[in-house]
Amino acid sequence: MNFTNRLLMMITMKQDQGRAAAIRVYTSGEVAQILGITKAQLFYWEETHKIPKASRTGSGKRYYLPQDIENLKKLLTRKASKTQNEYAAD
Predict the structure, then answer these.
(1) What is residue 84's DSSP assignment?
(2) Distance (Å, rounded) from C-alpha 68 to C-alpha 59?
(3) What element of type H or E holds 15?
(4) pTM of the model
(5) Structure confidence by residue, pLDDT tens digits, 48-90
(6) Of the residues 37, 41, 63, 70, which has the maximum number of CB atoms within 10 A of its CB?
(7) Other CB atoms within 10 A of residue 62 CB
(8) Under 8 Å CB-to-CB from 39, ≥6 apart: which residues?
(9) What residues form DSSP beta bridges with 26?
(10) Euclidean distance between CA atoms 57 and 67, whole angstroms
(11) Average pLDDT for residues 34-48, to the nearest whole number?
(12) What are phi and psi of 87, to 5 degrees?
């Protein structure tokens, strides 16, 4: 059983019209790949408060929910736009 499947079992089930539905969770490696960055960069940004801290399991492993990834994408898009505007002003 891989890490993501273990997390799926540990995460609280949400109710979906009276039936329990598993919440998809992502590892830091999966999130880094989705965002096109390295895990080290993801951890650095978290450590320096440039992005919100990830949720953690009882054993300390980071995990991300789909809405976390969407929020990170929006945050990174805003940061990229801001940087481009700074260069355009020079």
Answers:
(1) H
(2) 20
(3) strand 14-16
(4) 0.68
(5) 988 889 999 889 999 999 999 999 999 888 877 776 666 555 5
(6) 63
(7) 19
(8) 28, 29, 32
(9) 64
(10) 17
(11) 93
(12) -70, -35
